[in-house]
Amino acid sequence: MKIVAIMGSPRRNGNSEILLHTFLSARPQGSSLTVLVPSEMHLEFCRGCRFCERMGSCVIRDDMETVYPLLCEADRVVVSAPVFFYGFPAHLKALIDRTQPLWARRYLLREVMPPKKGFLLAVGATRGQRLFEGVVLTTRYFFDAFGCTYENGLFFRGFDVKGSIADCSQCLRDVEEAGKSFLCG
Ligand SMILES: Cc1cc2nc3c(=O)[nH]c(=O)nc-3n(C[C@H](O)[C@H](O)[C@H](O)COP(=O)(O)O)c2cc1C
Q: Is the CB of 82 under 6 A from ligand 1?
């Protein structure tokens, strides 16, 4: 099984990274794992030029060249990220916008993509009921661009201090359990 994990926070060893590693801890032996950290990659912003709509590829040459095949060939994709202004941090959003060539290949050029399953882990500092609506919608349509079904998500409110999620043992148990069923199911 090929697993692609995207750590969407620019803050290393923070809440998103702890959630992600906990989720991945139960991954099956023999599975392959690639962890992407968009804030540490060379990723330019989508220029909206629409070249990909005709050609199915991007004009920009950067680290996305390695991301496209990883996403297309994955069996499971997991995103773990904080909420920034009710959306994703810009580095992760840049990666997502750059998957437009995959959307074009799927929906305009009618390429059949093998099915995959996706999961979202998200954390925010506040407690509003609608806190995760933006990131859930973005994730659903990000996943859909490369034939990945949004299976489920786990959401954590009220965590702001770096690493404070580690003090919530119930949160980590829930995440480990969810990881087990998502990655081993
Ligand atoms: C630029 C920025 C914007 C943020 N926007 C929100 C927000 O809209 N809602 C919220 O609840 N928390 C917001 N936060 C708080 C983070 O979501 C929170 O601190 C989270 O635990 C950080 O996770 P990390 O440790 O993985 O980076 C924001 C933090 C930053 C730095």
A: yes
Tell which CATH classification among 3.40.190.10, 3.40.50.360, 3.30.200.20, 3.90.79.10 matches the domain 2-184.
Answer: 3.40.50.360
Q: Give, for all 185 residues of the chain, the pLDDT tens digit.
A: 999 999 999 999 999 999 999 999 989 999 999 999 999 999 999 999 999 999 999 999 999 999 999 999 999 999 999 999 999 999 999 999 999 999 999 999 999 999 999 999 999 999 999 999 999 999 999 999 999 999 999 999 999 999 999 999 999 999 999 999 999 97
Write down the domain spans for the chain.
2-184
Report the nearest-CA residue for atom 31 of ligand 1.
84
16 lines ligand 1 (CB under 6 A): yes
CB 24 within 8 A of CB 121: no
CA distance 135 to 44: 21
- Interval between CA 32 and ligand 1 midpoint (Å): 30
Residue nearest to atom 5 of ligand 1 (CA): 84
CB burial of residue 111 (10 Å; 0-12, 13-18, 19+) = middle
